[in-house]
Design goal:
Layout: H1 13-23, E1 27-28, E2 38-42, H2 47-62, E3 66-70, H3 76-85, E4 90-94, H4 95-102, H5 113-124, E5 129-131, E6 141-146, H6 147-153, E7 169-172, H7 183-188, E8 196-199, H8 205-213, E9 218-222, E10 233-236, E11 248-253, H9 259-271, H10 274-285, H11 291-301
Parallel strand pairs: 2-3, 7-8, 7-9
Antiparallel strand pairs: 1-3, 4-11, 5-11, 6-9, 6-10
Helix pairs in contact: 2-9, 2-11, 4-5, 10-11
Length: 306
């Protein structure tokens, strides 16, 4: 198990190759007349990754780098080898999920982003890469209930489920049964034993349908899903800090990680918040705006572009 966060977006290599062919032509030119160098930014095949790649990439371009994009590459099984081979120089990752991919699911990730990133770097160094300073922005597993359930039992935190879990049905993807930070964690950390557990998908249409028709009352979602309010779902606070630190973190080839580049990327990470991710995801997923336009608007609004 490599961590649930965004592993469900895996794609076949053949499809990824077709996507790369489309994405390779995208680039950003430096704002000045002389380029500081060329950096290729890659990404996973989901909208938030496109947005983050554009946020980091456009900032590098503004600061004088020629930036090429290879977005929508696919899952980590495609993105990480692309980084290792030098096909890309950088991609926006998630600390815990990157660690649990590279360590083959050893369960070393914790709720501490700095500790998790430090462990991640012990694995990245072996492939000539490194993770920079993690952002406060987090997009990982979250556990939601319907608003009706939250109101009925006065639920605000996962601890609040302790006395009522045996009355509720839980639903999630197949990975949840064995993943340290899903059902095993809900059981060992919070002492939750549900009335029944259904194997659905991971934050996908089956889970949403089960919430809607009342088949489940508790389920796994992702913390920055833009449609949670529309779906009438309430995310319960992880008050015992069980969930792994899937904070956004740039992963970069060490050869490309100059002081100037890392300084630019760390500045972006330091200003990025979970609410920023939620807002930008909504603009792309619900308002159907383009990721590059959303990223540019964010950077302008936060004074990264003069």
């Amino acid at each position: 198990m490599n961590g649930i966060r965004r592993t469900v977006w895996s794609a076949a290599a053949v499809a990824a190759i077709a996507l790369v062919a489309v994405a390779c032509g995208a680039s950003s030119s430096p704002s000045g007349t002389t380029s500081k160098g060329t950096i290729t930014v890659g990404g996973f095949n989901f909208p938030e990754s496109d947005i983050l790649a554009q946020v980091y990439g456009q900032t590098l371009a503004h600061d004088g780098y020629t930036v090429n994009y290879k977005l929508e590459l696919g899952a980590r099984s495609i993105v990480v080898p692309a980084l290792q081979s030098g096909q890309i120089d950088l991609y926006p990752g998630y600390a815990a999920s990157e660690l649990e991919y590279l360590n083959h699911g050893k369960g070393e990730a914790t709720a501490d982003p700095a500790e998790t990133t430090s462990k991640l770097n012990t694995y990245l160094s072996a492939i000539g890469a490194e993770a920079l300073t993690p952002s406060a922005a987090f997009d990982g597993n979250a556990y939601a209930v319907t608003k009706a359930t939250a109101d009925q039992y006065n639920l605000k935190t996962l601890s609040d489920l302790t006395g009522v879990a045996d009355k509720l049905v839980f639903g999630a993807g197949p990975e949840c049964k064995t993943y340290k930070f899903c059902l095993p964690g809900l059981t060992s950390v919070y002492g939750l034993h549900f009335k029944n557990t259904l194997v659905l998908d991971t934050d996908g249409p089956a889970t949403r349908a089960a919430f809607k028709n009342g088949t489940i009352q508790v389920g796994l979602v992702f913390s920055t899903d833009a449609d949670l309010q529309q779906l009438g779902l309430v995310v319960l606070q992880d008050d015992k800090h069980m969930i792994a630190a899937d904070n956004v973190v740039p992963v970069i080839r060490t050869k490309a990680a100059t002081n100037d580049v890392t300084g630019i990327l760390n500045k972006i990470s330091a200003g990025l918040s979970t609410n920023d991710l939620f807002t930008m995801n909504g603009e792309v997923s619900l308002q159907h705006m383009d990721a590059d336009a959303v990223a540019k608007s964010y950077l302008q609004a936060h004074n990264y572009f003069s």
